[in-house]
Design goal:
The structure is a homodimer.
Chain A (H helix, E strand, L loop, with lengths): L11 H4 L2 H8 L3 E5 L4 E3 L7 E15 L5 E7 L4 E2 L1 H5 L7 E14 H10 L1 H27 L2 H14 L6 E2 L3 H8 L3 H13 L4 E3 L2 E3 L3 H12 L11
Antiparallel strand pairs in A: 1-6, 2-6, 3-4, 3-5, 3-6, 7-9, 8-9
Helix pairs in contact in A: 4-5, 6-8, 6-9, 7-8
The structure holds a DNA duplex.
Chain lengths: 234, 234
DNA sequence: AATAGAATGCCAAATATTTATCATTTAGGT
DNA sequence: ACCTAAATGATAAATATTTGGCATTCTATT
């Protein structure tokens, strides 16, 4: 699944050293959940960090009609709950098990103790949080200032550049439509127009990008702001 | 001016102790800028933190047509540049002086040294970053799942709750329209409809909220997710 | 190879939004 | 008290989007 929190966002466990990973793993305790079981509820005010250790969890909110609206899906190594520790907020999302899963639950006190003694952990958490802020901010800026077609192209480019296979994105048109807050018909129209310019190839459950540099150039020309490379190139 | 980064977001200097403020103030050097002068450019890869000490700065990007599109305005005590230090990103925005201003420029090395020795600083930065992530995420979730009218009402409520005077918001309909990515005409329609329900009173350069609890209840009923209190209530 | 479910393509009527003007109101400066 | 620039209100034609329905394509499973 495609969402604004995920793409290009590393896992906490990949950002810290083996030693720190070891120290972290010793905190709290692992809890297993069965498919669909509720792990956290929006509004709860228990403070603590949760790290997915096996399987995956679904993050979202329960909507007006009682349906679960997914914001993101977090897999092994990703963490939840920073808000409760550092932003003085209650749980902002409902979190439930997506299949069988195991989540390491770390209460506030031991986590904060480790945090205070290991600046590396602080840097890693800041790194994650700032990358997310950046993604969200860039998306919302783009949303308002770019023509939708260009914005969609830029988004696909970003997803491609952080994907395992940049030439073939696994995504549904419906997912894209949801992300942009438009109907499937509209998204179909945007995508088709990009296809007719030779930038993408629409397939079943996938979008192929035959010429990544071409797409990059096309987007760059239409946004006229320096395209941000993840690490500044020399 | 109204924007997604600002409301409810405290200043760095308010989040840390007097001692730490003092230590922070001794780093780097203060630089004065004249109105309109460029402080940072998107794409630059110089690393460092900037703290506004006098006046204010405008943060944005230079658009396709060369015009400056404002993302936010930062005043005294607010900081810029976390991305460059902790997220491995080049400058993401153009920053220019809004009137005469003074900005404390702190290079990466001394800032990181202080960061590593003072977990309080790490906590404060995380606090800021997470609050922003939260605002942006909540806004984009709401954008997709709520009827626009309800979303506008919720946004006004949030602005009111973090404003000096919750009963009277200083904002232009055009600003609101820009934030929501719609035309002034559409925003006018939404606002008028809220006015006709007795929730707000439209004025010149302002919106009055005669009955905050009423608005809160109205929004709450239509969003049906626990309204997040800034600090969890007991 | 047949089949079912999921995803995409396509279409037109209904609805919503934008664009482009112009009138009116408001606050601040002279 | 007047005048001006800025903001809001109002309107209609032009565009764009959504909704709903149905046909087609694709993939995995039988």
């Amino acid at each position: 699944m495609l969402d604004l929190l995920q793409f290009g966002s590393p896992r906490l466990t990949d950002l810290i050293s083996a030693d720190l990973n070891y120290a972290l793993a010793r905190l709290g305790r692992d809890v297993s959940y069965s498919d669909g079981q509720l792990i956290h509820s929006r509004g709860d005010d228990n403070r603590g960090i949760s790290i997915v250790r096996e399987g995956a969890v679904r993050i979202g909110v329960i909507g007006i009609d009682g349906s679960f609206i997914t914001t993101s899906i977090f897999g092994v190594g990703q963490c939840i709950g920073e808000f409760t520790l550092f932003a003085g907020l209650p749980r902002t999302h409902d979190v439930s098990a997506l299949g069988e899963c195991t989540v390491q639950q770390i209460p506030a006190a031991p986590f904060l103790a480790l945090f205070d003694s290991e600046p590396e952990l602080a840097q890693a958490l800041l790194h994650l949080s700032l990358l997310r802020t950046h993604s969200l901010l860039e998306f919302s800026d783009d949303f308002r200032r770019l023509p939708k077609q260009v914005h969609v192209a830029k988004f696909l480019l970003q997803v491609a550049e952080s994907a395992a296979d940049p030439a073939e994105l696994q995504c549904l048109q419906e997912e894209l439509a949801y992300i942009f807050g438009v109907s499937r018909v509209s998204m179909g129209k945007f995508l088709k127009s990009l296809q007719s310019e030779g930038l993408i190839l629409l397939g079943y459950r996938k979008i192929r990008i035959p010429d990544l540099p071409l797409l990059r150039a096309w987007v760059s020309q239409r946004t006229l702001v320096a395209p941000l490379a993840p690490k500044a190139r020399s």
